Amino acid sequence: MQKITMNGQRTMFAFYTSTAKRTAKSFSELTKFVEAERKKGTVYPPADQVFTWTTMCNISEVKVVMLGQDPYHGPRQAHGLCFSVQKGITPPPSLENMFKELLQDIEGFQHPGHGTLTGWAKQGVLLLNACLTVRAHQANSHQGKGWEQFTDAVISWLNKNSSGIVFMLWGSYAQKKGSCIDKKKHHVLTAVHPSPLSAHRGFFGCKHFSQCNKLLQKSGKTPIDWNKLPVE
């Protein structure tokens, strides 16, 4: 597993360890599990990209949070940002549906022609999966190993120490994980997941991207430029 050396990653580690004291699994046990998994087979994302989401902006600059479940489990897709894929990889169906909604919701939005969302992350959009690793071709294979406590602690810290964050919670899993959010301090937008299995039941037409920017402006924050998706 990637060594936790960057300042943002040390902070995230501190969040986790404070929570780990109250849980059965410690971070060291989680680390050993993931390392053993990598020795047995392929695990995504690559070890040096597990914590990409901590490197895009300072935690104090987070304005928007999108919650996913676990990383993409196909070759060369996951790179440490939920919904996002590596450069040169075709956007998966859920991300394509997000782009379809953006085309209808945001005037002037253009499909970027790729699926790398670092441009959003650098503006303060935290693209966070509940589990940060997954076995190749086996969705949810690293659930219940300790990642959930880590990411719960990140959400709890943001909930307590920030204000005016827009949480975009799509699907029942994300909504359950975000149930601790104080709606008096933050904004919560909910809809079905953008998956092709559910997008037509309320994701299309939800206008969350424009709503998000209106809420940010109401809180005195700079809106997200959803078009700013350069290939990096």
TrEMBL record:
Its main location: mitochondrion. GO terms for cellular component: mitochondrion; nucleoplasm. PROSITE patterns: U_DNA_GLYCOSYLASE. It comes from the Eukaryota. The active site is at residue 70. CDD domains: UDG-F1-like. Pfam families: UDG. One of its GO terms (biological process) is base-excision repair, AP site formation via deaminated base removal. Excises uracil residues from the DNA which can arise as a result of misincorporation of dUMP residues by DNA polymerase or due to deamination of cytosine. Interacts with RPA2 subunit of the RPA trimer; this interaction mediates UNG2 recruitment to RPA-coated single-stranded DNA at stalled replication forks. Interacts with PCNA; this interaction mediates UNG2 recruitment to S-phase replication foci. Interacts (via N-terminus) with FAM72A. This is Uracil-DNA glycosylase. It comes from Pomacea canaliculata.
